[in-house]
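My main concern about presentation is that the manuscript never shows what a single data entry looks like. In essence, backbone conformation is discretised, so a fold becomes a row of integers matching the chain in length. An entry of this sort, consisting of the sequence and the corresponding backbone structure tokens, reads as follows:
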Amino acid sequence: MTLWVWLKVYILALVSYNSAGDKMSVIPIRVLPDPILRQKSKRVRIIDSSVKKLIDDMIETMHAVPWRVGLAAPQVGVSLRMFVIGIPGEEDIALINPEIVWRTGERLVDEGCLSIPGFIGQIKRAVSVKVKGRDQNGKEIRIKANDLLSQALEHEIDHLNGVLYIDYLESMDKLHKIELEETQL
């Protein structure tokens, strides 16, 4: 991203507040070769105000990028097992200490990543998954998902394990460059 794009993102953060009236921030997104993207994240032991603030900031950061679906804590420099997902037209999801309970089927999908901007690759993902974890209030939740949501859940959980979608490519020749529209910010 250019300096101008990052400046626009930070300006957006200056006027953003959550429902409790707390200021939310857009956090810079880590990109390869940042080593935190390859580390296995630590479990969240206590869901306190700092974890809830991080979730709010991650949601704000995710929404600041128009071509995104999810964001894992390692992508903003925090090695904790948590992520947010925002599928257009659906309610945002925040999951803490998520685990895949089961997955079924297999399909080819085009996948990209905020931490590998400007590229997509075709990889295999499950047709459907069931994931369990905790929400930002500590309540255990289970999500059964298909289509884009199942893909996003697998993708974000991979991030928590230090795995990136490019690790599933048969070869780096299968990675395709795309043009990102900076004007969408």
